[in-house]
Amino acid sequence: SCILTGEFLVFFFPVVLNIDCGATGTRSDSLGMKWVGDDGYINTGQTAKVNTDYQEYQTLRYFPSQKKSCYVIPGVATGRKHMVRASFFYGNYDGKSSPPSFDLQFDGNHWDRTSSDGPYHWEVIYAPKRDNISVCVAQTSPDQIPFISALVIREFKQGMYETDGTEDFLLTWRRTALGSENFV
């Protein structure tokens, strides 16, 4: 179900999880969405701060010692479509002025290879086969250090984004804001 409030169309999802990677504690954003730190979902990596106006990009977690590092999100409904959004903002956190290239994986599947200076998101919609979701970043070479800024998980109600097969998944190719001046 959804509600139209002012300028925003708000959908109610059974599972809503916003993880601010590298942050601690909880906070609410300007839309009233609750964000939590990532300590309960990963136990490796180091944190860094980035100078930006967008709260979800002000902290990140990077992984200099592991070839592959995974966030594990427990308690998801198997067979129900979920949207997983991984967000990244390099912000020159390491002082190298060269964003790393690394792989992004969800539930063991290759998602994409990332390398970008500006903020960017990767989204997938799929039905998990287990009662948890894993999102991993993996090194592509020893001098490329993976990082992540935010993770968002949404469970969709039955019937939303249905496909013919249970193995199907949908990847975001491009999202365009028509008429918006401040869209990231």
Identify low-pLDDT runs. Answer: 1-13
Give the C-level CATH assignment: Mainly Beta
Q: What is the CATH topology assignment? A: Jelly Rolls
Please indicate the count of domains.
Answer: 1
Protein name: Malectin-like domain-containing protein
Keywords: Signal
Subcellular location: Membrane
Membrane topology: Single-pass membrane protein
Structure, explained:
- The protein is mainly β and 184 residues long.
- The protein is built from no helices and 16 strands.
- It has strands at residues 2-5, 8-11, 16-20, 26-28, 34-37, 46-49, 59-62, 68-74, 82-88, 102-106, 109-114, 120-126, 132-139, 147-148, 150-155, 169-171.
- Mean pLDDT is 83; it is low at 1-13.
Features:
disordered N terminus, Jelly Rolls, globular, seven-stranded mixed beta sheet, 184 residues, four-stranded antiparallel beta sheet
What is the fold's blueprint, element by element?
Layout: E1 2-5, E2 8-11, E3 16-20, E4 26-28, E5 34-37, E6 46-49, E7 59-62, E8 68-74, E9 82-88, E10 102-106, E11 109-114, E12 120-126, E13 132-139, E14 147-148, E15 150-155, E16 169-171
Parallel strand pairs: 3-5
Antiparallel strand pairs: 1-2, 3-15, 4-5, 6-7, 7-14, 8-13, 9-12, 9-15, 10-11, 10-13, 12-16
Membrane topology: Single-pass membrane protein
Protein name: Malectin-like domain-containing protein
Subcellular location: Membrane
